[in-house]
Amino acid sequence: ANDYLRDKYLARCKPVLARNLTIVLIKTLLRGDERGRPHVVRNLRHALQSVASTHPGVYEETVREQLNRLMDPLDDDQILNVGHVVGTDGRAWGWISAANQSRVEERMRAVSPLDESDAVIDLLDIRDLREAFTDAFSALDEERQVELIGAVPHASLELPAATLYRERSVSYRSAEHIGSSVVEPLIPVLSARGVAAILEAVMSNGQI
Questions:
Q1: What is the secondary structure of 39-75 as a DSSP string?
Q2: Global confidence as pTM
Q3: Distance between CA 44 and CA 162 in Å, rounded?
Q4: Using one digit for the tens of pLDDT, what is the confidence trace for 149-179?
Q5: d(Cα 57, Cα 52) in Å, to the nearest integer?
Q6: pLDDT tens, 18-54?
Q7: How far apart, in Å, are the Cα atoms of 69 and each of 23, 24, 37, 122, 178?
Q8: Distance of CA 20 to the CA centre of its chain
Q9: What stretches of 124-157 show up as alpha helix (H) in DSSP?
Q10: First to last CA, the chain
């Protein structure tokens, strides 16, 4: 799909069109207009990648110039959507002003299962944001921790997930619930350390 878009349309478009398309794509991703429609969000991100590869100079100049302007009016429910842009192009985090970076970090300290999970996951590649996220996770009660792991399955949560699995599995039924809620979502991202921690939880708890 990326090749078709690039070869059929973008390779022939004028720089001004590439600039305008970049702005529209970023604005749509930031505002969360397609929230709840992950396939549409993926297509928007793929389109942004195609613009970047076809018109790299225009793309970079536009993002550097426009990203902060587009972020400034975002409210707290929208600010984490910048993860869609950062996840598409990791350089974008370095193009964000210190003030807007601080807004994102502060919002990560109040992250919830209701936030856009793909955007949050992409932001977790940034160390300061990952630390803010884990602080937020630690402050939640156990039930909310379970919900957050299910909503944002990231490798940074594999050890807390193993702890929850071991300590909250007080019956076969609860073990099944915790396993499906916190272990299964993490399976694609588990490290060797995470696998070992899960196995240790299984071996130490006769209910699992």
A1: HHHHHHHHHHHHHHHHSHHHHHHHHHHHHHHHHTT--
A2: 0.81
A3: 35
A4: 988 899 999 999 999 888 888 788 888 888 8
A5: 8
A6: 999 999 999 999 998 777 788 888 999 999 999 999 9
A7: 11, 13, 25, 21, 43
A8: 25
A9: 127-139, 142-151
A10: 44
